Amino acid sequence: MHVRTFVFRSVGFLCLPRAKKMRRSTFLKSGSLLAVAQITGMSTLKALEAIGDALPKTERMPVMFVGHGNPMNAIEDNFYHRKWQELGKQLPKPKAILSISAHWLTPQTRVTAMDRPKTIHDFGGFPKKLFDQEYPAPGTPAFAAMTKELVNHTTIQSDLSWGLDHGTWSVLLPMYPGADIPVYQLSIVYEQPPSYHYEIGKQLNALRDKGVLIMGSGNIVHNLARVDWGGTGAVYDWAQEFDSKVKNWIDEGDHASVLNYQKIMGSLADMAHPSNDHFLPLFYILGLQQKGEQVRYFNDRFDMGSISMRSLLIG
C-alpha cells in the first residue's frame, strides 16, 4: 500500500466535541443482508437489491470538493474552519459520507468496510493537541458493498485496515462535530490517468439518491515546496493563474480540459502540482456532475501562497 504523508507547521487548537450516540438500525439491517447472502448463496446482485430496499431513496445529495490544506484548520478558529461549520448546518443531513481523500493512495482501488474506522494522524511536526483529536464516526459496510457493486470501471477491494485520514476528519470535525454520521473512504490509485478517476466518479451517482454525501478532499493548487512560511499573504502568480484556469473550465463545463490539464498547461501544471495527489479527488467530483447542476464556490482563497483552498458544491 502506498501512502503519502506531508509535514506542515502551525499552532493552536480547539477542543473536540463529545461524540453523540447514533441510531444504526438501518445500517445494521443492511449489513445483515450481506451476511445472509454469504450463508444462503444469494447472488451479490440480489443482495445489493435488498440493501437498496433497506436504504430508502432520499432527496438527491449534493457533491463537494473541499480544499483541506493545513491539518490545523480542523481545530483553529479561522476562516476555513468557520465555513465548514456553517456548511454542516446548511447542508441536508446525510445518511452517510463517502470521502475520497488525497491521503489514501493504493495500488488498487479500495473502500473501507469496517464498522468502526480509526482516526489516522497521518502528519508530523504538529502540537500534541492535534494528535489528541479523534473522530469516532461509525463506518458503513452496507454502503461500502453498494459502492463496490456500482462501479464496473474497475474492481474495488474491501479494506478493513485504513480508517479516516486527515483529508477526511480534519474537514468533518468542524462540519459534523457530533461524529454521528457513518463515514467511509474510497482510495486513489495514483498511477492511473485522470480519466480513470473521472469514470469512477460517474458511476457513484446512485449513492446520492440514497442520502450519501460524496466529498473529494485535496487542493486545486498544492505545492508544499513553495509554501510561504513567513505568512506575508502574498500569492504566487503561477498559483493564481492555475487556479483561475481550472475555475473557468469548471464554470464552462469543460471537463475535458480539466482532465487534460497537464498537456494543456505544461510547466504551469508542474508548478501547481509537483505530484497530483491533491488534484485527483476533483476528477471524481466532476464526474458526478449531472446535466444542469450548478457549481457554487466557497473558501476561494489561498493559504501560505501556494495552496489553493478553493472548494465547490455541485447540486
Notes on the structure:
By secondary structure, the protein is an alpha/beta fold. The chain has two domains: 23-56, no CATH class; 58-314, 3-Layer(aba) Sandwich (Protocatechuate 4,5-dioxygenase, Chain B). Helix content is 36%, strand content 14%. A six-stranded mixed β-sheet has the order 7-3-8-2-12-9, with helices on both faces. A two-stranded parallel sheet has the order 1-5. Helix 1 (25-40) crosses helix 5 (141-150) and helix 7 (194-202) packs parallel to helix 12.
- Tell me the number of helical segments per DSSP (H or I, 4 or more residues long): 12
Provide the CATH superfamily of the largest domain.
LigB-like
Q: The CATH topology of the largest domain is what?
A: Protocatechuate 4,5-dioxygenase, Chain B
The separation of the N and C termini measures 34 Å
Q: Count structural domains.
A: 2
Query: Runs with pLDDT <50, length 5+?
Result: 1-40
How does the overall form come out from the CA principal axes?
A: globular
CATH class of the largest domain: Alpha Beta
What is the beta-strand fraction? 5-15%
CATH architecture of the largest domain: 3-Layer(aba) Sandwich
Instruction: Please give the order of strands in the largest beta sheet.
Output: 7-3-8-2-12-9
Q: What's the gyration radius in Å?
A: 19 Å
Give the biggest sheet: 6 strands, mixed
